[in-house]
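note to self: dont lose this again. the chain is below, predicted strucutre after it. 137 aa total, dont forget to put it in the shared folder this time
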Amino acid sequence: MPRVFATGRDLGLTIGGNQFKDISTSITLEETITRVDIQPITSNSDIKLKVNQEATLSIEAYQDWNSSGTGITALAKYLYDAAQTAPDTALAFSFTAGGTTFAGDVYPEKPNVGGGATDALTFSVSLMVKGGVVTRS
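---
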């Protein structure tokens, strides 16, 4: 079977039931496990012990504040409004990369606003994954 490589065009993103694939320019999910070394009195070897797990969903996208229409939800406006009205309420997300789906819940953050006069305006936002828990299917 040949090796299959995914590209950024293969990425898909859903937050709170809304799809945002066409507005995002970059989507990255980073999972980090923190471990400590312990050495029991009865052993000469260290043991790695997981003490924490964190995950962050980072999104770069075009500022789409005024996008509207059937089936269209503006990502910048959606995240801003969610962070403004319910910042401690996690939103379900699913992220598809190369045919594999990662899912969890993220806390909303307000995206940055503005940019250069001749630029297509973009924003970057990093969303903390609730409990660092991500499933893969």
